[in-house]
Each structure stands twice: as structure tokens, then as C-alpha cells.
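The pair is quoted verbatim below.
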Amino acid sequence: MLRVALATYESAPELAPDDRPLVPALARVGVRAEPAVWSDASLPWESFDAVVIRSCWDYHLRVAEFFSWLDRLESADIRVWNPPTIVRWNADKRYLLDLTRRGVPTIPTMIALRGRPGDVEAIVHAEGWRRVVVKPAISASGFETHSLTSPFDAAARATIERVAGLSHVLVQPFVEEIPRDGELSFTFIDGRFSHATLKRARTGEFRVQTEHGGSVENTTVDATLVEQASRVLGAVDDVPLYARVDGVVRGGDLLLMELELIEPNVFLGARDGAVDDLAAAIRSRLDA
């Protein structure tokens, strides 16, 4: 039987709840799936036919180590999905600038270089933004993501200095649609649209992640929005095994917030058959 490692992290050694149904689904198509903590140096990765990156939710805290792990998998000619080239590109949120250049409508994004917190204030002043969001270019799950109001006080400047000490800084205008309407997530499996969910922030919060009290609900979306989300994937250099396109609707158009290709919760329980579709896609790639 073919063996696949479902890469996870130390805090979820038996996989995140969203991923656990993938084990029996893969068994139904003749693939033995095993949880594997990516940072466990004792694991014989070469014994697997492929590695599927799933809930590696600490990668942003251990970037060099995570990239070294990807290098080892590549050196051993192990198939990895999503592929390491996509993962490295997607790990740094400056990919939003790449997608903008490729014609994808995104939330306006400016970059302040690491270690230069004063540049954040200069950007905000130059753009005329009143309320902004700042976050590290490499982050996940709303880590060190802050909403600040200009002009900045001492506390805001201290926050910016801390974030700028971690990595380059993304600076964006605050997106009012998120606390008002929520954020749409479009899940794609092997390049095909699967289902949509709506993420909402709790009262008084703007981050929609469940770690910050957010909620997720199933939703239906207009075909034109699905088409726009599909065009986001079309701007990527390869077809990912799984993807989540996160965005807001403004004037009938989808504006990209994030393209999640590394370790997103793809909400497999949101549609009957979604987990089987992902299992079938993995089997198809193994056979190819």
C-alpha cells in the first residue's frame, strides 16, 4: 500500500480536527496516511511515497528550520504537496505584490523593511491612511497582526518596532468589510473549486481566525465570485493540490486578502464529499 505522511506540528501530533477525516478517506483509495510532525528529525521521510503539508502551524516561528526541512525532502527526491517552490513563495506575504503585478485585484499593500519601523509611519502618512493593519511578512494565524490608528501614539510605535524586529512589515489600509461582512474563503482542490465558507470576527475584533475568537460558517457564493477566485489560482506558477483564496467583496468584485497554500484549514467538513475529493486528488498525483 502507498504511504503518505500528513505533515503536522508538535502541538497537533495526531493532526488538526479538519485533517483527521483524510486518513480514512485515503485508506478508501488504497493509501495509508500517517500523521508526521515535520520538525521530528528522527522520522524516516524517505520511507513515504509523498508528504502532504497540512497543519504545520508553527512554521512562521521556525522559518529557517522549516525551509531546511523542505530542502531535505527535495534532496531526497520526495514528492511534496504543495510543492516546496510554491511553499517558499507563499510563506512570505510579499507574494501579494507578485499577484498584483500579475493582474490580481488585492488589498493595497506596502512594505516596510525589517528593522526600519519609522518607514511604517512614513508609508501611512504618504498614503493618507487613517486606520491601518500591520503584520510581519512571514506570519500565520493572525500572529503579530495589529490594527492601528494614525497618528501613532507611543504604544502604537512600540508595536510597530516589535513587528519590524521580526521581519519585513506589511502595511495595509484597514478593510472595513471584514468586521461588517466577514471574509470569504474559497477552497480549491487540485485547481477546482470545492466549497466556500464565511469567516467572521468576534465583536470588537478584526481578526477572523478561530484563535482570536472568530467563527466559520458554510455559505453559498455567486458564480462570478468563484470565477474571480479561480483567476487568482491561475496567476500561480503551478496547480496546487489544495488552496484557499481569502477575500472580501467590494463593489461586486473580489479583493484578495490572502492566498493560503501552505497549511490552511480548508474546512473539509463544509461540503459532503470534499474530503474524498482531496483523497482522490492525492491518489491521482501518486499514480502520475
